[in-house]
Design brief:
heterodimer; A: mainly alpha; two-stranded antiparallel sheet; 21 helices; B: mainly alpha; Helix Hairpins; about 60% helix; K(+)/H(+) antiporter subunit D (chain A); ND/Mrp_TM (chain A)
Chain lengths: ~550, ~120
């Protein structure tokens, strides 16, 4: 009986936010606190459920209710639609709902008053995200993707204003075009293999006729482009900085996970479909991912250095993070996977915290201050005489806390020891240099060296850019008023950063989980077998 | 029939992409609509082209698969049409909001220096 209930936990992260979103719509907009409370409670429940699911997944597939497979119409896999939970999807679920929780708490201080139906849209976004992580079926992935995107259009426009509407127009147009590509890719794959179930696809690809194989590869490439637009691979990423910088802070913080949805799907499909089991198609598209990923890191790094406003700096950091992960997948080293997953978690948490922090820091400054700061840097300070008189100015308490958070963000983003940003990058590089056996050196190609150089340079660039902004903001404050910050706003930032710190201290258990996840991904046929042979609920 | 359908999809997709790249929001939305028609027809054709073959089994009829067409792409097309339609409606709202804010229908929210 208990396992029965546990089994239904799998669908709760999708159903609960959907139901709550519907309940919130008729409630009057003036009852903001009530709406916020209901929404927050729902996200909190989802977060707890995903924590339970992750604990179960960590213990291995055997301890998952129903083997981690939930048959929606109680039909077995290739015919019915299934939800599949494994270590990777549990990790992504947990990350997404944790971020959503922090962003929602932050929004309740003031941002949810900026427009209508914020909490409904937010719940729909959570439902779409969770669905995209859980689904085991390509077309259902499309449906959840569209649900997530529709909510994200509304959230990006939240707060309105010419800047957001302009960024929103571009964002909607580009994503609609990408959705068309998604559909073309899915239907090509269906036309060639006759299945949409990912697990079934993995087993069928090995025994496919050569003429169908060409079609599947074309379909996968078209599908890949759709996800790469979402993940922000150069040159498909020019919409991203404008859209992310224009979004309201809590929305931008959840958007940090949207690019990771693209990466998740690419990782999932790449590992499931195009690994060794794929026969002649093994390693398909790997070179494209590697080259594109490295170009994305380079583009993001230049963007980080060139940004004047902190919002754009954070948006370009999203690109650097995407590029690092795409190139890591493209390198195709099984040993790097665990490091890449740790990097994914750490960088997403950091960037989300940074987006939330930016608005708090910039609240006390006027819009022209950034441009002025850079101009002053170029032409020298005007008031050099006054500097000698100011010996030690007391830093107000608020600024001290904000500054501390900013320092943590800078350390995490640039990948300096001792925090998790460094550990993740170190794990990536260690996987690159070491073979499967400990201390066994393997030949390293020019592409690998380029990756190493880019990874380290991007960290350096982040450090330079953040130092520049940090010094201008916290040490040489120009006529700035002290921002008024309420506890509910700084707490989510602190919690997200604390999660990164926790990840640094608990790096051992975290890496063990990531390694187990990577091992799962490297055995796609075991995964397929589990999905396809799952029994129906309630016997035959 | 194959030739007509593929030419139709090609013409729709080509004009859709051309319009999508034009500078006026109205052209963009028409382009997106044409593109989604092309995609829907494409999904439909992935179930193979059959004439006079129903997608659902008839009650009491023989279960001979040769007499039926693949029902899955038709279900997919239905979903894709609904979602595409909703998204186009949403885009229309954003388009109007943009027009209201900027007073122009250019996609960048401002007229280029010299006419285009």
């Amino acid at each position: 009986m208990v396992t029965d209930w546990l089994h239904h936990l799998l669908i709760l992260p999708i159903l609960l936010p959907l139901a709550v979103a519907a309940v919130l719509i008729p409630i009057d907009e003036r009852e903001r606190t009530l709406k916020g409370a209901i929404g927050f409670a729902s996200t909190l429940v989802v977060f707890i459920v995903t924590m339970i699911l992750m604990r179960l997944a960590a213990a291995g597939e055997g301890s998952l209710p129903g083997g981690g497979v939930y048959q929606l119409g109680n039909w077995p896999a290739p015919f019915g639609i299934v939800l599949v939970l494994d270590r990777l999807s549990a990790l992504m679920l947990c990350l997404a709902s944790g971020l959503a929780l922090a962003a929602q708490a932050y929004s309740m201080a003031r941002w949810h008053t900026a427009g209508h139906h914020f909490h409904s849209l937010f719940q729909l976004l959570v439902a779409g995200l969770n669905g995209a992580f859980l689904t085991g079926d390509l077309f259902n992935l499309f449906v959840f993707f569209e649900m997530m995107l529709a909510a994200s259009y509304g959230l990006l426009l939240h707060g309105s204003g010419p800047l957001r509407v302009k960024a929103g127009l571009h964002y909607v147009a580009i994503n609609l075009a990408a959705s068309s590509l998604f559909l073309i890719g899915v239907s090509l794959i269906y036309g060639a293999t006759g299945t949409l179930n990912m697990a079934d696809l993995a087993t069928k690809l090995a025994t496919l006729a050569p003429e169908s194989r060409r079609l599947v590869e074309t379909g996968a490439a078209v599908l890949g482009v759709a996800f790469l637009v979402k993940a922000g691979m150069w040159p498909l990423s020019f919409w991203l900085p404008a859209a992310y910088a224009a979004a309201t802070p809590p929305v931008a913080a959840v958007f940090a996970i949207l690019t990771k949805v693209g990466i998740y799907v690419i990782l999932r499909l790449h590992m499931l479909v195009f690994r060794t089991a794929a026969g002649a198609s093994a390693g398909f598209g790997q070179d494209w991912l590697l080259t594109g990923g490295m170009l994305t890191i380079a583009f993001g790094t230049i963007g980080v250095l060139a940004s004047q406003a902190m919002g754009r700096l954070a948006a370009y950091s999203v690109l650097v993070s995407s590029g690092t992960l795409l190139a890591a997948i493209g390198l195709g080293r099984p040993e790097m996977l665990a490091g890449a997953l740790l990097y994914l978690v750490s960088s997403t948490l950091t960037i989300a915290a940074f987006f939330l922090l930016i608005e708090l820091v910039e609240r006390g400054r006027d819009a022209g201050a950034d441009v002025l700061a850079v101009t002053m840097e170029a032409y020298g300070d005007f008031d050099e005489n006054e500097e000698e008189e100011e010996v030690g100015v007391a830093i107000p308490g608020t600024m001290a806390i904000l500054g501390l958070c900013f320092c943590l963000c800078a350390i995490l983003l640039s990948g300096l020891p001792p925090l998790s940003g460094f550990i993740a990058k170190f794990a990536l590089l260690r996987g690159l240099f070491n073979g499967p056996e400990a201390n066994q050196a393997i030949p390293i190609s020019a592409g690998d060296w380029t990756y190493v150089a880019l990874l380290i340079l991007s960290g350096l660039a982040a450090m330079i850019a953040l130092n520049r902004v940090g010094i201008r903001t916290f040490w040489a404050s120009i006529e700035g008023t002290i921002p008024r910050v309420v506890v509910i706003e700084i707490t989510p930032v602190a919690i997200l950063l604390a999660a990164c710190v926790f990840l640094s201290f608990q790096a051992g258990p975290a890496m063990r989980y990531m390694q187990a996840t990577a091992d799962d991904l490297l055995a796609p046929l075991v995964h397929s077998e589990r999905v396809l042979s799952a029994p129906r609920a309630g016997g035959q | 029939m194959e030739l007509i359908l593929s030419a139709g999809i090609g013409a729709l997709a080509a004009s859709g992409v051309y319009l999508l790249l034009r500078p006026r929001t109205y052209q963009v939305i028409i382009g997106l609509a044409l593109l989604s028609y092309a995609v829907n027809l494409f999904i439909f054709s992935m179930g193979r082209l059959r004439v006079n073959a129903p997608p659902v089994l008839e009650p009491g009829g023989a279960g001979d698969l040769l007499r039926y067409t693949d029902p899955v792409p038709q279900a997919l097309v239905l979903t894709a049409i609904v979602i595409g339609f909703a998204m186009t409606a949403l885009f229309l709202v954003v388009l109007l909001a943009s027009r209201g804010f900027t007073g122009t229908d250019h996609v960048d929210g401002r007229e280029p220096p010299r006419g285009d």
